[in-house]
Specification:
Helix content: 25-40%
Structural class: alpha+beta
Largest sheet: 3 strands, antiparallel
Distance between the termini: 20 Å
Number of strands: 3
């Protein structure tokens, strides 16, 4: 399972997404995504184990 970190122009983490399609949705919603970085495999595992369904926006 891959996750991506989205950063704004100041380098602040603004979101973690599971797919690039999720990143595209954030951009369409007007979020200032400037840089996207794929998380390392070990980071992705921790992310998937610690996040709750409430962390994901199911509205789109």
């Amino acid at each position: 399972m891959k996750f991506f970190c989205c950063y704004d122009e100041q380098g602040t983490l603004i979101a973690r997404c599971q797919t690039m399609a999720d990143v595209d949705v954030l951009k369409k919603m007007g979020r200032p995504v400037v840089r996207v970085a794929e998380m390392a495999e070990e980071e992705s595992v921790v992310c998937s184990l610690t996040d709750t369904p409430a962390e994901f926006n199911q509205d789109y």
